[in-house]
Design goal:
This protein is of the alpha+beta class and 109 residues long. Helices cover 19% and strands 41% of the residues. It is globular and about 40 Å long.
Length: 109
């Protein structure tokens, strides 16, 4: 799943606003040509941010601690496109930028 870093980072930050200390998760839901990022907190409410992506596989949803993803994205060139490799909602997500950079993020179950 190729994703341009700058809008991806912005969307994660927007979704994470409603996350609280108890949940500490953003759900990444991939469907045809769309990534929907959602978070909620008991006292903070809900957020939903949609981002167009080049995805044509089966729908998949996985939750990550956004702090780990944001930390990785901030270290990369904002204009670059990275790829995300997912198998299912319980398997590690692998973010890649070219052949030289890989970043693993464990999903939250």
């Amino acid at each position: 799943i190729p994703i341009v870093i700058a809008p991806f980072l912005t969307a994660i930050r927007q979704a994470a606003i409603m996350m609280d200390d108890e949940t500490k998760r953003v759900t990444f839901a991939f469907s045809k040509n769309k990534l929907t990022l959602q978070a909620h907190g008991k006292d903070t409410g809900r957020s939903r941010v949609e981002l167009p992506v080049d995805y044509d596989g089966k729908a998949i949803s996985v939750s990550f601690n956004p702090a780990f993803v944001i930390e990785m994205l901030r270290a990369l060139d904002a204009g670059a496109a990275l790829s995300l490799e997912l198998v299912d909602s319980a398997t590690v997500g692998v973010f890649r930028l070219g052949e030289e950079y890989s970043y693993l993020v464990m999903p939250l179950t």
